[in-house]
Amino acid sequence: MGVPKFRPEIQALNPYQVGRPIDEVARDIGLGSASIVKLTANESPDGPFPGVAEAVAAAVSGVNRYPDNDLWELSHALAGEIGVSREAVLFGAGSVGLIAEIMSAAAGPGTNVVYGWPSFVMYRFAATWSGAAHVEVPLDDAHELDLDALASAIDDATRVVIVCNPNNPTGTIKSGDEIEDFVAAVPEDVLVVVDEAYHEFVRDERYRSAVPVAAARPNVVVLRTFSKIYSLAGLRIGYAVGQPPTLAEIRKAQEPLTVTTVSQAAAHASLGQPEELERRVMANEAARHHLQGALIEREVEFVESHTNFIYFKMPGGDSAGLSDAFTARGVILRPMGGGWLRVTVGSEADNRQFVASLDAILSDSRA
Ligand SMILES: Cc1ncc(COP(=O)(O)O)c(C=O)c1O
User: Considering the entire predicted model, what is its pTM?
Assistant: First the structure.
C-alpha cells in the first residue's frame, strides 16, 4: 500500500514547540498544576484589559455570522491610535499568521528570506512553508542583530528580510537611526519586515518604532500583536502597518475571515486605555529589573533586556538538561542552546519560584 507524498522540506520540520502544557508537566513530576509556572511563551501574567471580558461576552451572541472581513470598527480605532490611515493597517490571526502570509505573497521557490539568528523561530517555519530558502545571519557579540551583516546577506534571490526589534529571544534593540540606515541600504525591491511584537515594552530613548518608515516606503511593513502587552495571546490577533498597495498584495495571499468576531471585539475594547497600558509596562519593567538584579547577585550571565523576557546562560552549556532541571522544580522555561535559556517575566509569585529554582540548580552545579 502506498503512502501520501509530502514535500521533503516540510517533512524535515519538527512541529513548533509552544512549551509543554502545565498539566502534562504536573503529571510527570507528581506536583499539582497550581505549583507549576509556565514562563516559556512571553505571555502576559495579567488578564485582558478592563472591559475586554464584557466586550467578548457581548460579541459571542453574534458568532452565528462570519466575522467582518474588513474589520471596519477595529481598523478605524487602531489607525487613529497609531496615527495612520485605515488602509495602512492589515489584521491577521496573530502576527504569526501575517508572517506566513507575507512569505507566501512575496517569497517562494527559488527565492530566499534573510533574518538574524537566534531570532523568532517562526521565520524559519514560514519561509519553509512558502518554499523559499532561509538565510540566518548570526547576531553580533552583544547578542544584537548585526544589521551590516544582514544587509550584506541580501542577494538577487532575496525577497524578504526580517528585522525583529526588539529581538526575541535576546531582548536587545536596534535604535531608530540604525533601523532607518539599514532600510536605506536594502534594495527597494526587497520587502523589509520589522517585527515589533514587543514594541510597547521598550522605554529606551534610542528606540523608535518603524511605523513612520513603513508609512513612507513601499518596501517596509511593521508587524505588531495583541498577544503580549495586551494579554490576548489566546485570541490570535495581530496587524501589519504599511503602504496600502503593499498590504493589498499581502492580502491576496491571506486566508479570509481568520480574525474572529470575538478577537476583533477584544482588541477594540483594549484600545484607548493609555493609563492601563503604561501601568502594565511599568510593572513589567520593575519585575524585569528585579529578576535581572537576582541574576547579577548570583553572577549568572544574561543579556540586558528591553522586553518581557530575559536571555540568560547557566554553567554547563546543556540548555535542554538545564531546562529539564527547571521543569523538575515546576518552572517551564525555553531552552535556547549553548547553555542559554529564556525566561518570561511572570507574576511576582512566578518570578519568586523561578529564582528559588535557579538557586537550587546553581547550588547543585556549584556543589
Ligand atoms: C518576535 C515575535 N513575533 C511574533 C510573535 C507572535 O505573535 P502572535 O501571537 O501575534 O502570533 C512572537 C510570539 O512570541 C514573537 O516573539
Answer: 0.97
